[in-house]
Fold this protein.
Amino acid sequence: MTYPDGHVGWRAHDYATVRAVLADNRFSIRPDLMHNPFGPGSPGDAPPSPPGAFTDHDPPDHTRYRSKLTGQFTVRRMRLLAERLEAITAEHLEELAAQGSPADLVEHFAVPVPALMICELLGVPYERRTEFQQDAVLLAGGSGAEPGEAEAMFAAFGRLQQFMLEMVAAKHANPTDDLLSDLVNADSDLTNDEMASMGMALLGGGLDTTTNMLSLGTLELLRDQARVAAMLADPEAAVEELLRYISLTPATVRTAMEDVEIDSVLVREGDTVLVELRSANHDPARYTEPELLDLTRGAAGHLAFGHGIHQCIGQHLARIELKIAFPGLFTRFPKLRLAVPEDELPHRSSLVIGGLERMPVAWD
């Protein structure tokens, strides 16, 4: 396909090819090496990613950064957080109830639950969330394609970087039981700038993605009461299918560092590939009737969290949050429904991560 800057690049859209590209380390994730399929942008237009921003680095830098975090996001540790997540969910469900019917599910539930959880995990004061939340969401969901968006993203990056540097300094002075303190106290060669960038990547990913899965997932469940029953009967299978079906991040991008043959197609060095995760998750060669939301199918092997070395490091936390939040919501509010016609719900304009700006719901 022809990219906005005139580059003739590629689209990988079937399940097998998407997995092959994501698993092949001859493809780079670095933004400064790629053509932007979402808007103007050629290699060299974007600056090199800052040290520590592990989601935008290739090995060996990516390997070095990610190895510092792997032990923080194990399945076992995330299970230990489940009890705290249940308490946070219950607390915010009561806050939602206190608003009275109708109320905005996004503002009073979908935003604060993952925000509080990632703040506790990182050791970031939740009461300071207004200082970073909007900037983190912009960086996580922006493509730089809209007029003025690139400039706004650079400004947001500067503010968020300064905030995280303050947090790192605070952990040096007074370490606590959290991820940032573990990075500070670890016997490692990380600089303060690297630790701040790692914290920024985790903060942005932990805030925005789960928030939007909660709102969009709830919308899908409200379309059919049988779906609510399926969620309550088997949250694990239902959550996996929602992740596959919605595929919150529709695509990612890679650039070939050398000539690579994929599925009998030669991708030349320097060619950029738009890797379509949502399309792969709806490939009929992988899933029977992929356009059908079947909450009992389980959706094993879906690519909603990516694949390969850059597969989402926080996926275990996201899964636990969703498996607790959805059943908690519909158990507390069994008569939950939309308070406005669905076509009046304001969707985000982001090309990168979809979601709802507001979601008025009623329950009496």
